[in-house]
Fold each of these.
Amino acid sequence: MNNFDYRNPTHIVFGKDRLGELDKLVPQDAKVMVLYGGGSVKRFGTLDKVLAGLGERQVVEFAGIEPNPQFDTLMKAIEIVRAEKVDFLLAVGGGSVMDGTKFVAAAANYDGDEADILKHGFAPPPIESALPLATVATLPATGSEMNMGAVVSYQGGKFPVMHPLLFPQFSVLDPSLTFSLPPVQVANGVVDAFVHTLEQYVTLPANGHIQDRTAEGILKTLIEIGPVTLANPEDYEARATLVWAATSALNGFIGAGVPQDWTTHMIGHELTALFGIDHGQSLAIIQPSVWKLRKQKKHAKLLQYAERVWDITEGDDDQRIDAAIAKTREFFESLGVKTRLSEYGVEKSQIDSIVQALEDHGMVALSETGDLDLSISRQIIEDAYA
Ligand code: NZQ
Ligand code: ZN
């Protein structure tokens, strides 16, 4: 196992009817900005409950954070935060609203050009402080409710921002707030949580026994409850399990002390930025092809995945690995998520633009060891096409 530091300060407030507790969770004298998306939280009554929970505090609302939150939109929120002297941010929504709120928190006190914050990849940007933030999560998928990461869209690219100051102080996870999700978002969420787990697990062996067994537990659980929660959106126990699985997949625990490979996410981000393909869908397209091209490198962990997650014990190594890749694709398809790039209205001739975008964004040395160059990315994308 590699050396690691692990600290996760987010207080999770899990379960039914917890929004009334906002009054205890948010500082009494806070001036709060409540940030949300395109209106689902208004339509389904979550916003009213949040505002009631905040009681007599001064509240400023900021609506309109779009899926794949845009820098320009977030800058509008930042201007209001500065003008109104807001001192606490409460995100109410999915990953996009939570991530957008994290960027507002990071940039509000920043002196320089706010876009600089987006230029540090997985290394922390040079911020000295951030506004305190918290979330009410309405979509189980990204893990943003319990991690220090955000992804912001800027000038045609998607840029990660990671900083320990961006952990939410608390996150309210009430599974019943997610019952209103359309099936496509539930399916996207299952795929996103599944691939977060894979990108920290199907890498190189590192004797991370606790991390591996936990990852396998999350994967098996998603395979079990994904279809159940899709078919019965108001089955509380199934949805509660999905919510906790998605949070557990990306709160740092399974990735501590083991190699990580974010290739599928980095290529997927370009598909979203160029063609508007949903984040979860972009991962379902890319993941099987990453494995096909990287079978040698990931041999040991792919075999482990085949045996422990899919119970594949027949055939030689290659056959087992191929069967595990096929099972993964079938799982995504069974949730209604298409796994071929050609099925999303993209022309084969547009593959060049994806490779170009990877180059423009410096995504030229991906994988757990940084040896995945543009020529391999091109082969992955070509394989994912049809
Ligand atoms: O905008 P509203 O009207 O709220 O509608 C949203 C949006 O259209 C809707 N929705 C959310 N909760 C709902 C609901 N509709 C009905 N009922 C509810 N309870 O769902 C739509 C999609 O929302 P979005 O927040 O965009 O989805 P998701 O949670 O999948 O977030 C995706 C974003 O997260 C980033 C992605 O890149 C993408 O930008 N990621 C963030 C990560 C992180 N912070 O650690 C890691 C992930 O890998 C991911 O990259
Ligand atoms: Zn993701």
Amino acid sequence: MSIIKACIFDLDGVIVDTAVYHYEAWRRLANQLGFDFTEEQNEELKGISRIESLKIILNWGNLQKDEDEIIALATLKNTWYVEMITKMTPSEILPGAQEFLELVREKGYKTALGSASKNSETILKQIGLFDHFDVLVDGNKVTKSKPDPSVFLVGAEELGIDPSACVVFEDAVAGVQAALAGGMKVVGIGNEKILKGADLVVAGLHEMTIDKLERL
Ligand code: BG6
Ligand code: MG
């Protein structure tokens, strides 16, 4: 076995594609506030916490809100988002994600979730992968948003594995930066022109193999 002992997975965009639901709910909120934003702009919100995302969106609409209003708006968006994710099924697991998770565990690697979402437990239960991780670290446990490495460092610590022996799987630029800042290896999920600095970029977990993991 290589020096890698643990795999830490981001959730949204790596295990499951919830970006469409985030986009729909944020857009509904923006429309209610009198403006709109594009799918391209939505890309900037990947990996960013709920409150930080809302602040970026309000900026696009040239709107200023106080902290109480920000919390109320974020809560409203989350109500709509939860309505959508509670209808999710295992058919929405991204190609190869379940297979790769099961393969690495079978080979003796530890697994952790490292997500900014406060809804990770709901999503994992909906798609039937709640029991596929040794450790779950999400936005309920860690408040500092990626690119801060906290979410991954807490995961490594809870697994009892040195960060240098962990590999992070991430689809967001902020997430790749967080993993690098934490001294971990990182596999980007998506486009290598966007996920700069990643040790390897693949289109999805269906392209990952144990061989590729051991060569990192
Ligand atoms: C990240 C998503 O995983 O979680 C972001 O990429 C999202 O788009 C963030 O804003 C927080 O999610 P939630 O479910 O707590 O609002
Ligand atoms: Mg993501």
